[in-house]
Hints:
CATH class: Alpha Beta
CATH architecture: 2-Layer Sandwich
Largest sheet: 4 strands, antiparallel
Low-confidence stretches: none
Radius of gyration: 15 Å
Shape: globular
Amino acid sequence: MLNHYETVFIMTPVLSDEQMKETVKKIKSLLKEKKAEIIFEDNWGLRKLAYPIKKLSTGFYYLIEFKAEGNFIADLELTFKREERILRFLTVAQDKHAVAYSEKKRLKAADAKVKENV
């Protein structure tokens, strides 16, 4: 059975736009390689960090929601640790309430976007 997960990772702010896209592509290709189903992804962009990491005060945030086998998370987190462009990461298993909340939030955002374009 596939579990729902949400992972957020922070990339170093000194990356070019192309390097940032490469890093995200690497993570997504690992997910696809391990037969994970990507449900949603969102580029949160450059944000201020709560505290300095490696003397940096900002970072590029990226969120990916996906379904995968539980034993895959160890591989994903090992990739995060080995990737020098990633400052921090957090992967959380979602229960049915979190999944429902995420779906509701996405629908609300989609409705707002539709109303904005009308």
